[in-house]
What does this fold into?
Amino acid sequence: MRLSGLIVMLLMLTGCQSLLSKPKSSEPAPNEAARAILDEDICLFEHAPKDFEHNCDMRFWINEWVVASATSWSERKATIKEMGNSQYDIVRAYVLTLPNDTPYQDRLRAQLALDTLSEKFTASAKEVINVVAAEQNNQLMQLESALVVLEKENTQRGEALQQLRDDAVSLRKKLEELLQIEAALMDKNRSTQQ
It folds into this structure.
């Protein structure tokens, strides 16, 4: 009896150990992959388009983002309106729309413009932009969309609630009128019976 219990215990421990052990993979760990991107120069394009400044200068783009964060939306919007449709202007406009005070429509417009351009980016540039900016930017846009939907729904519910209140007041008045008519009829009926 003790021997069979011991065998069952050993089998359970062996099963637990196999569940806890991780298989060795030939893929680099996430930290190693990130380190590989950071160890190399990050260029947006393999071969930068003509007149595209700061292709491999991530410090410039991060500095643009920091300056944009310290600048009001109205100033940034005026700067964006002055820009053209060059690839440099599309990237710069995207960076200028990254701060949180950018309205949804402008943020979406810049994201869509960058999405059309990002197919030409290097793999490391795509990864860095996605991790550093795009994921958070998309999440913020999704939250803003959800807030707009909830706000509309709350407005509709508020209007429906107000309509119900108005209907209740109207029904109460009609009920009071009917009660007064009934009371008048009962008084009239009593007076005719006497």
